[in-house]
Structure formats: C-alpha cells, structure tokens
C-alpha cells in the first residue's frame, strides 16, 4: 500500500505516493527525474548517491524515502544557482580536473560541500579522510583533493560566493 512522502527538494516542496520500500535515491531519480544522484553499488560503499538531508551528507541508497518525510533535500542539481552559475565546489572540480568519467562526481561534490561547511580550512589529510566513503575509479583522488582545497582557498580569499558556507 503506497504512502505519501512530502519533502522539500532543492528548495521546492514535493509530495508523492510511493511504495514503503522506496529508497530515497529511487525517489529522487524515478519520481522526480533528478538523475544527477547516481546509483553505483547498491551497498552504500561508493558514495555516488550522496545528497544533503537537512544539510548533512547522506548516502541516499541507504535511506527509505519515507524516512526523509518532512526533510529538506539538496541534490547536485540544487547546488548551482537558478541562472546556471556553478556552485564554487562544482567550479573548483571543473577548473582543477577533479573528474574524469564524472560518475562519482555528484557524490564527491556533495560530500566536499559539507566538509567545507564543517571545516572551512581542511588539510589534505582531512579532505582525504572525509572523502574516504566515496570511491572514484578514474582519477586516483589527487585532483579531487586538489579541487576541494582550491575551493576552500577561494572561500578564504573571498573570491568564491558564500554558497558553500550557507549550504
């Protein structure tokens, strides 16, 4: 028997009837068409499905949509400004070649945004530790870490928008 799930996704209220066993990642991708959140492993190992639930990074393949009822969700699609201007973290990944195939990128970016919210000036070791739950099979992580550190530096220098701090 379907249940109704109501939440705010990328600043917009949504409500849908779903099966109780529907995962949050399925809800986002199949019900809302937000396919930037990827399903990579189905076991919560890879981190491709990371979204923000009430400002915290979560692996959306491990949560039932019903458990997010009433919450605010931000997906990779919700980071960019309405005019298409990239979020500072997205821009840093692009400028520092922090992606190759791009499959892990949404989860990496979402995780990194929360890291900078919690730790505005992380060390390389802190970045690597924070991203430990995200797997990239292409880049070897060097440029991903470089991207996160570059975004942190831009924020400290005041040249990036306050979007990261506000996230």
Automatic annotation (TrEMBL):
InterPro entries: 2Fe-2S-bd, 2Fe-2S-bd_dom_sf, 2Fe-2S_ferredoxin-like_sf, 2Fe-2S_ferredoxin-type, Beta-grasp_dom_sf, Diverse_Oxidoreductases
Alphabetical list of Pfam families matching this protein: Fer2, Fer2_2
Taxonomy, superkingdom: Bacteria
SUPFAM superfamilies: 2Fe-2S ferredoxin-like (SSF54292), CO dehydrogenase ISP C-domain like (SSF47741)
Domain 2Fe-2S ferredoxin-type: start-end pairs: 3-79
UniProt keyword annotations, A-Z: 2Fe-2S, Iron, Iron-sulfur, Metal-binding, Oxidoreductase
Protein's recorded name: (2Fe-2S)-binding protein
The species this protein was found in: Rhodocista pekingensis
């Amino acid at each position: 028997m379907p249940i109704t799930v109501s939440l705010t996704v990328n600043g917009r209220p949504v409500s849908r009837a779903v099966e109780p066993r529907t995962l949050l990642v399925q809800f986002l991708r199949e019900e809302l068409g937000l396919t930037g959140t990827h399903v990579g492993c189905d076991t919560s190992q890879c981190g491709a499905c990371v979204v923000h639930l009430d400002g915290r990074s979560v692996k959306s393949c491990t949560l039932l949509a019903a458990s997010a009822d009433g919450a605010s969700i931000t997906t990779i699609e919700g980071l960019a400004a309405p005019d298409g201007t990239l979020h500072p973290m997205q821009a840093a990944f692009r400028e520092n070649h922090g992606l190759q195939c791009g499959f892990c990128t949404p989860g990496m970016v979402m995780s990194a945004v929360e890291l900078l919210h919690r730790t505005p000036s992380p060390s390389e070791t802190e970045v690597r530790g924070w991203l430990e739950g995200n797997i990239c099979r292409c880049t070897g992580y060097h440029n991903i870490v470089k991207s996160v550190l570059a975004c942190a530096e831009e924020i400290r220098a005041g040249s990036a928008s306050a979007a990261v701090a506000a996230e």
